[in-house]
Give the backbone structure.
Amino acid sequence: MPVSAARVLLPLVLATSGLAAGAQVLPAPENVVGLSASATLEVPRDWLTVVFSTTREGPEASAVQSQLKQALDAALVEARKVAKAGELEVSSGNFALHPRYTPKGGTNGWTGSTELLVQGRDMAAIAQLTGRIQSLSIARLNYSLSRAAMEKVEADVTAQAVGRFRAKATQTAQLFGFTGYLLREVQVGGGEAPMPYQPQMMKSRVAAAPMADESLPVEAGKATVTVNVNGSIQLTK
C-alpha cells in the first residue's frame, strides 16, 4: 500500500475505534423503574355472526356446482329480504369443489361446499332469519363487539389504564423520595378477550324437506375488554 494511502486510512481507523469505544462506555441510566398498569371493562356483546353452509356430492363436478348454487341462491333470497347495512349484513362465504379419491388414488366423484355469512347488530332479526333459511344449515355462530362499540370501549379502558399508570408513577417517585419522573418508554395494548367455545346443537336440514320456522335462541352475554400499559420511568429530583 502506498505511504500516502496509509497516512489517510490510519486516522480514519483511529477515529472509528474511538467512536466505538465511546459508545461502549456510556453510563447506564440511573433511577429507572419499570411499571405496568391495566384496566378492564365488561360490556354487552352487540354483534352476531352466523355462518350457514351445506355440502353436496355427485359424479359430475358441474352437477355438484349447480346444486350448491341453487342452495345458496335460495338462502340469499330469504336473507336479502331483511338485509340492512349495519343491522343485518349478508355476504357469500367460502366455496369449494374438489374430487373424491379412492384408496387406490383414482377419483370416484366430486364433493363441494358453500357458505353464507349473516352478521349484524339486529340479533332478533338474524335469529328469525335462521328459521326461514332451509337450504343451508347453521355451521357456526359467534357473538362479539361491533367495530363502533369496540372503538368506544377501548378508548374508555385505555384512558383508565393510562391514568392508573401515571398515578402509579407519581406514587413510586414519592415513595423513593423523588419529586417527579420522566417517561422513558411505554407500550399500550389489549382488546377483547376471546369468547369461550360453546358447542351449538345445529339443525340438519334437507332442501327437499322444509322444516317448521324455528328461530335461533339468542343470548349474547358480555365481552371483557382489557388494556395493558407497560413501560419505564426515570425518577427526577
